Amino acid sequence: MSYNARHSGLQKEVFNLYRRALRIPRTKPPPTRAKWGLMLRYTFRKQAASVPPRAVAAIEHLLRVGARQLSVYEDRSVKDCWVSAEMREWETEQRQRRIGS
């Protein structure tokens, strides 16, 4: 079985959007890249956790909204983003999980 056959079209769309999001920090000024990476990873993970895997309509909606957001973030004039304390706490928890496992 090939890699592509294991995932549905919807899953592939989500992966492609996430991949697109992960490329954004590389286009931003070096001092802000870590913030961009954190903000994008956090947003994807929280959105993914908020929707059941079989809620196709909700996932399609989030894909459309996410694509529009990424279009704004990809604009060269957008240089920085805001990171909340909740995002920083989430990042710390993720690192601790990786170290602990």
Automatic annotation (TrEMBL):
Gene Ontology CC entries for this record: mitochondrion
Highest taxon listed in the record's lineage: Eukaryota
Places the protein is found: Mitochondrion
GO BP annotation list: mitochondrial respiratory chain complex II assembly
Keyword terms: Mitochondrion
InterPro entries cross-referenced by the UniProt entry: Complex1_LYR_SDHAF1_LYRM8
This protein's name: Uncharacterized protein
Keyword flag Mitochondrion: yes
